[in-house]
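Why does residue order matter? Because the sequence determines the fold. Keep that principle in mind as you read this record.
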Amino acid sequence: MKREFTFCQQLERDLLTAYRERLWQPFCRAVRLYRLIQPGDRIAVCISGGKDSMLLAKLMQLLHRHTAYPFEVRYLVMDPGYSPANRQKIEDNARLLEIPCTIFDSDVFDVACAQEKNPCFLCARMRRGCLYGKARELGCNKIALGHHFDDVIETVLISMFYGGQIQGMPPRLKSKNFPGMELIRPLYRVREEDIITWKEQNGLEFLQCACRFTENAARAGREGDSKRQQIKRLLKQLRQDNPVLEQNIFGALHNVQLDTLVAWKYRGKAHSFLDAFSPSGEEEPDGNP
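Structure:
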């Protein structure tokens, strides 16, 4: 007799078979290559309700189920002030995907939206702090976020074009404000287009951007056009002439030639190519342009 699978069971089978090369293997490779999980870890998978974090939660659940590696996982949802409909959407999807979530409330949207300058920066910083705090309360030593391959290269270009610096998005990061806590990004090598394909082929609907600032702008008739959206369009255009453009940018992050750079910072300390010309250790004149 042919076995009948539930929607969630079939989705899990597909992640290990049909989507093995595009989702499961890049996810597992990132975990191994960047040593994201160690024995005894208790990891809080942070779920925003979007496609990336929901997929991350499912992959972490499968990894925990199918590996003998000793680690624990919790699934954490922070409600920063979602509308009732958006919160319900997250709860419905969690049930559909059989992800046992811990949901807690915060006032992040109220505080961030009251700021006239850089509300998105403040919102992101506050959300990160709230997640670290709740994760530590649950006994976790790491939080896992759903940033993927495309987020990584877009962040590099945004920092260069709009911030005047070369700054990446590492797959693993120690918290400065929460000693003993780390942030990991297990989707680091997963392409966004593959996540979208998985979502659409399974008929899944996740939150797009449930940010109150974005919703208020939409109601006022102002269309959002973030720097990240501009970079996405630029990459799409350049990809027409160079199909491996994004892969080259990603590869460059793993192949930085420090001896060809003019200046850089490491652990907060400034370094310069002029260091090689100052054996006496005397301070050289400022070489900034």
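The chain has one domain: 7-237.
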